[in-house]
Amino acid sequence: MNKIQTPAAHTILGHPDSLFVLFFTEMWERFSYYGMRALLVLFLVTTVDKGGWGWSRADATALYGWYTGLVYLTPILGGYIADQLLGSRRSVVLGGFIIAAGHACLLFDTPATFYTGLGLVVAGTGLFKPNISAIVGQLYTKDNEGGRDGGYTLFYMGVNSGAFFGILLCGYIGEKISWPMGFGLAGAFMILGAIQFYFGQGIFGDIGLAKSQQKADAVVAEEAAPHIVSDRLVAICVFSFFTIFFWFAFEQAGGSMTIFAADYTDRALVGTSGMAFKIVNSLMTVIPTIILSWLLLKLFAGTAKRYLLSNALLLLCIGLIWALVIWMLRREFALDQSSVPATWFGVLNSFFLVILAPMFSKLWEKYWNPSGPVKFGVGLVLLGLGFAALSYGSASIPAGAKTASVSMIFLIAAYFFHTMGELCVSPVGLSYISKLAPPRLLGLMFGVWFLNTAIANKLAGFSGSYIDDISKHYSMSIFFLIFTLIPIAAGVILMLLDKWMKQKMHGIH
Question: What sections of 268-307 are H helices per DSSP?
């Protein structure tokens, strides 16, 4: 069995400082993943004379679906390997270095290195993703169980901080400077993050060690009766299944929604509107950087004496973020005319999440804390409402049109609703898995969660590849209406299963 050790006494925001080692490690991994993902479809569809490969939209979104699907398929194998052989910590370190090697391959603009790079990122993510999530859950024992949901919310803020800066900086450099430089930047932060975790992993004590490394006198987590364990595993599978309906629509962000931003959205800004965008973009960028710097200083104050090299690497990463942010903003302010990068809209999800997460945390804690199935159902409905905004906004686009100039307000509204939906689904789901799964199967159950995310991502790419066919024969509005109706229907069904799901969870709320 996995053995759990009491977390360190030093805390940040009421949580063990070890949580923030995981926070920053996951942040750099998500920086690399989302930074590269933001560029993938745009790079493939960009014409050869502009540095791309000139693929059709259908082929590009189909590859996107295969890639993102496989990224979330391999964690079920990675979770099993960690549970049975390597342990969570070794798996995170090994996975991080494999991901970094994959990004290094993308620096070389050849088909062989491109596909090799994608394959390495897929393999590395399989080891990294489920096991870092499992370690978070093991930081919370009976002594601090009440902080588990909040811990996963903070961890999820790390996920989205990485996504925010990855999309913002890799997307900007890839679109405006060089595609290989955008891909390369993603890999640089991944390797720094993996090294930082390696030198700081002692902070976890026995948590995440392989069976052969665990101390004989470590506390063994108790397990419920077999029939309760069985029922709770069924509940995990049901939650995971319904995430397919969420992520298949949500992950249009990297495919059809990016195409909509690039070709159907009015992104040109001049005069007052251009200056207003520059100011808003600056505030959106600088404020999260200040918050992350403050968290890093808090972590440094508590752990620098024990893990100086790990903290030094974190300081280097934040310093690089500040340098890139200042360079990007100065470059944009020097331009007379601004054109909002198509990849910029992807940062809205992460920005809204950082702003809304504390509000949702307080909502669950003080005002309204429904069961997991109800939270999931609400999240699915909110996601559908986001696509309803896009369906309405694109109603004026003629069938078969290749370009248009729709107001960007509809994309902004969509990302706002999608983010609220995500806060009802993703961090809640991670927390429920850590509470429902027995410790001996924790990595595997996170793998099951990501397996369904893999199916959803493949479906996202497959369905997104029909954007041209559906908009030609029907309309762009009908295309987005599909992603309105399916999540809402799934959300209603899951809420109707609430009573049955409570029975399967046996007292877990």
Answer: 271-303
From the CB of residue 50, how many other CB atoms can be counted at a distance below 10 Å?
A: 9
Mean pLDDT of 181-192: 87
Q: In DSSP terms, which residues pair with 338 in a beta bridge?
A: 269
Run of H or E including 11: strand 11-12
What is the bridge-based pairing of β-strands 15-16 and 11-12? antiparallel
Rg of the chain in Å (alpha carbons): 22
DSSP, res 216: T
Please give the single-letter amino acid code of residue 361: S
**CB-based contacts of 268, cutoff 8 Å, min separation 6:** 337, 338, 339
- Contact of 380 with 425, CB cutoff 8 Å: yes
d(CA 25, CA 199): 12
Three-state DSSP state, 336: coil
Q: Cα dist. 220→5, 90, 231, 264 in Å?
A: 9, 20, 22, 57
The residue among 245, 276, 284, 295 whose CA lies nearest residue 425 is: 245
pLDDT tens digits for 104-156? 888 877 889 889 999 999 999 989 988 888 888 788 776 666 667 677 877 88
Sorted by sequence, the CB contacts under 8 Å of residue 39 that are 6+ apart come out as 170, 171, 174, 175, 179, 182, 183, 343
As given in the structure block, the two tokens for residue 408 are 């960007």
The residue to which tokens 């979770």 are assigned: 79
For the stretch 355-360, contacts whose Cβ atoms lie closer than 8 Å and that sit 24 or more positions apart, written own/partner, are 356/419, 356/420, 356/423, 357/153, 357/156, 357/157, 357/423, 357/427, 360/153, 360/420, 360/423, 360/424
Token digits for 113? 């290195």
In contact, 299 and 17? CB cutoff 8 Å = yes
Give the whole-angstrom CA distance, residue 185 versus residue 169: 8
Using CA atoms, how far apart are residues 135 and 18, in angstroms rounded to an integer?
10
